[in-house]
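Run log // design_07
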């Protein structure tokens, strides 16, 4: 038995509310169950009850056992002084107020129907991959669609938090913030932190000034990530090292570099050298990248903006001094899709929110035009016959698995609640 299930029972009155009697033997009538707070303090605020012949207004606290009151140290917390009813599954001890009076207790165990318990046990008794995997495909489509939209915007809001925070710290220099987060996503999971640190270490006004020569941008990016050294044999890396030294001196930049990105376990096209060259080309070819992204209303427009490849040296190299067969090495559609999902859509959302604008439909249209992501979580949902038609579906299902299923939050999940209603 879990407290969140008892919260659900009380909130939605999933028990026999007729002829209720407290464990002290007084009749209980529920006028208003109270507001479910889901924060610190009592579980339900401003409930209205009649206990015996006395009308009460105050808070309600719920535990599995009465003794949990003392286990959670509520007796010494003033936030619980106004509790008028203690709801429990099993009553095992009296709970006394500071004035010496006993808090009335309702033992729900005596009033919950067997069918309600069976539904709960069927949902939570045994987890294979997710608790509801036997019931989720039978769920009403309308319920599932509504919950997926909620999940998607929850995930989007979480992604927007660090963006908004950096925007505030930079005086709303959205171009600079975008550069940092684009760099992070160009680095993918392995090198994202290194690329992000590199971008943060470079004042964006310097990036903008040096963007007219792509070699200068590469010198900055490679230099700051520690990829330049004095032992290279090719002319190109020697030229980049000289440029980096000159630019560092000209702008009085600190010559220190961030953690050197990794090559290990990457496909060659994802080598940090290739991704940094592509990032340099993006900012060489386009001024005001942020403004252009905000004005892109279709996936095709974004694809056109990110239609960049590497500089000539990297067409025949993956690392310095080691030549390879010539290849253009442009950003692929699948990579741009990741940028749209993880950077562009969160940025559009965060920026619109800062202006008080509503662009939900625009974001949904963009995401529904993209193919779903490919990973083990989405593959498993597909095996369970859950529809995954677009990146919108995959983003919602990732939020479901990572934030609800993995933490057994069935009582806060629209799917879990719908199953319990049956």
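design_07 sequence
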């Amino acid at each position: 038995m879990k407290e969140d299930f008892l919260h659900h029972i009380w909130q939605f009155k999933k028990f026999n509310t007729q002829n209720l009697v407290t464990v002290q033997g007084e009749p209980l009538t529920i006028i208003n169950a109270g507001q479910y707070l889901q924060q610190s303090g009592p579980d339900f605020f401003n409930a209205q009850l009649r206990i015996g012949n006395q009308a009460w207004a105050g808070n309600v606290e719920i535990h599995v056992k009465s003794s949990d009151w003392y286990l959670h140290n509520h007796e010494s917390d003033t936030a619980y002084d106004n509790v008028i009813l203690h709801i429990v599954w099993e009553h095992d001890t009296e709970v006394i107020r500071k004035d010496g009076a006993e808090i009335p207790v309702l033992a729900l165990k005596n009033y919950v129907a067997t069918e309600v318990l069976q539904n709960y046990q069927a949902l939570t008794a045994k987890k294979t991959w997710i608790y509801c995997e036997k019931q989720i495909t039978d769920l009403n489509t309308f319920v599932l669609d509504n919950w997926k939209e909620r999940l998607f915007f929850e995930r989007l809001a979480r992604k927007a938090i660090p963006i908004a925070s950096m925007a505030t710290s930079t005086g709303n220099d959205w171009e600079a913030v975008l550069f940092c987060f684009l760099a992070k996503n160009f680095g993918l999971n392995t090198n994202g932190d290194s690329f992000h640190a590199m971008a943060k270490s470079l004042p964006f006004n310097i990036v903008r000034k040096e963007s007219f020569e792509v070699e200068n941008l590469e010198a900055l990016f490679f230099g700051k990530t520690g990829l330049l050294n004095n032992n290279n044999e090719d002319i190109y890396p020697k030229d980049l090292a000289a440029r980096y030294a000159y630019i560092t001196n000209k702008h009085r930049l600190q010559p220190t570099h961030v953690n050197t990105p990794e090559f290990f376990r990457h496909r060659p096209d994802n080598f940090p050298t290739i991704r940094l060259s592509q990032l340099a080309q993006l900012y060489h070819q386009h001024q005001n990248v942020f403004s252009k992204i905000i004005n892109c209303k279709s996936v095709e427009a974004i694809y056109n903006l990110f239609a960049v490849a590497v500089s000539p040296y990297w067409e025949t190299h993956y690392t310095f001094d080691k030549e390879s067969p010539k290849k253009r090495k442009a950003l692929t559609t699948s990579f741009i899709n990741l940028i749209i999902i993880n950077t562009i859509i969160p940025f559009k959302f965060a920026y619109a929110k800062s202006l008080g604008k509503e662009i939900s439909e625009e974001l949904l249209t963009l995401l529904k035009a993209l193919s779903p992501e490919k990973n083990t979580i989405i593959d498993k949902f597909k095996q369970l016959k859950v529809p995954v038609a677009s990146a919108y579906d995959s983003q919602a299902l990732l939020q479901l698995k990572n934030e609800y299923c993995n933490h057994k939050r069935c009582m806060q999940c629209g799917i879990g609640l719908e199953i319990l209603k049956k």
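DSSP finds 18 helices and nine strands in the chain.
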